[in-house]
Amino acid sequence: MKNLTKSDLQILRSIQLLDLPTRQSISSDVNLSLLKVSKVLKFLEDSGSIRKAGKSFSASGRPSYIYELNPAYLYSLGASISNVGMTIVAINATKNIIKTNNVLFTDKALQSDDVNLLINQIIEPLKSMQNELAAQGKHLSSIGISVPGMIDTAKHIWLSGLQLPGIDHVDINKEICKRMEIPVYAEDNSRIISYCEKVLGQGKNIKNFVVLYLGIGVGAGIIINNEIYRGAHGTAGEIGHVINANNNYRCSCGNVGCLETVTSHSGILRIFRDRLSEGVHSPLQIYSQKKGGLTFESILKAADNDDKLARDTLFEIGQFIGDACTILINLFNPEKLIITGSVAIFEKYLSEAIKLSLSRKIVSSILEQTVITFTPYSSTNEAHGAALFAISQYWDDLITNNLDSTDLNCE
């Protein structure tokens, strides 16, 4: 990206981030004249940086070219960290995943309070994929990291790692960046998922929406006027630590009744194990005595086979999720509330309870104006979102700082 002007960079960013980058939409986005945009587009196309990707037609039938970056123009890595390992994806300039890798952390790293062990477990597979891509002539522009727990986005500080040991005010950007010499951008899982929905999912073309993320933890990704809302210190959206009076479980934060204890992945498994330990008749009993035997898949199978314990327990969990939705809708009045995360596998058994809870606690005129939906979830969602987020932040840094270096935020 050497020898590119600020206008060149703005237009490249616009082409990559706009849903439909035509000459007209690019001009509006970057606030440059159509004549200036046309000249830059020709220069970038002649240099091989961009290409025509089709045509768009106006209401009058007039065609306009749609532009996209050359897929090989830049690459980014996205990593999603869980309580047992991480998923890594590499994407090209057209936002498509070109490589995926799943890594398990060692027992030693998961059981030690030495944060360096865990950081090494995170960096080594990232470095390995970086080297593999470099050998193919594919050089990375940036790395995005989706982390569980709580993060101060403004300071790049990973405050706590939920079920991961040793995470206590870790400068995750600096730790990875200084080892890999590439800009690193870390965000929490729920905000990364909301950004992914904004770019590729059900949040496209919606200015105000909220994602309720139910996975390793529970959080809300809040989009206001097309921007991620983080709060004063980057910790907005901690819906998982709102107390529910009907919940008696103690949370890892020390409080009793946090929604996270009954709506997160581990929280739901704990509820089922507790019910099964009471001797309730259920085909799930065969899994309860086995370590790792009880899974979401086995619970879903039992519910599909009309198991009363499975269905009744999921309905109860759905009411807790409905309470979380009630809070988010009343606070933010979103156009759409999107529910996702590993818990979304139970959509058909949670939906009725969620709707019942909302109908009892939200004014009907407000509820009628809010779309509430589940969105499909896979293990690559956070990693893909992290890679997309990193590219967006990388463009902003390039344009704001007018730099060509690859260590924009390593200091």
Give an overview of the whole structure.
The protein is of the alpha/beta class and 411 residues long. It has 3 domains: 6-69, Orthogonal Bundle (Arc Repressor Mutant, subunit A), CATH 1.10.10; 75-193 and 380-401, Nucleotidyltransferase, domain 5 (2-Layer Sandwich); 204-374, 2-Layer Sandwich (Nucleotidyltransferase, domain 5). Helix content is 43%, strand content 21%. It is built from 15 helices and 15 strands. The chain has helices at 6-17, 23-30, 34-46, 107-111, 115-135, 172-180, 189-200, 260-263, 265-277, 285-288, 296-304, 308-332, 347-361, 364-367, 381-401; strands at residues 50-57, 63-69, 75-81, 85-91, 97-104, 140-147, 150-152, 157-160, 168-171, 184-188, 209-214, 218-224, 227-229, 336-340, 371-374. The protein has a 5-stranded mixed β-sheet. A hairpin with a 4-residue loop joins β7 and β8 (157-160). The two termini are 21 Å apart. The model is unreliable at 405-409 (pLDDT under 50).
Q: Secondary-structure map with pairings?
A:
Blueprint: H1 6-17, H2 23-30, H3 34-46, E1 50-57, E2 63-69, E3 75-81, E4 85-91, E5 97-104, H4 107-111, H5 115-135, E6 140-147, E7 150-152, E8 157-160, E9 168-171, H6 172-180, E10 184-188, H7 189-200, E11 209-214, E12 218-224, E13 227-229, H8 260-263, H9 265-277, H10 285-288, H11 296-304, H12 308-332, E14 336-340, H13 347-361, H14 364-367, E15 371-374, H15 381-401
Parallel strand pairs: 3-6, 6-10, 11-14, 14-15
Antiparallel strand pairs: 1-2, 3-4, 4-5, 7-8, 8-9, 11-12, 12-13
Helix pairs in contact: 1-2, 1-3, 1-15, 2-3, 5-6, 7-15, 9-12, 11-12, 12-13
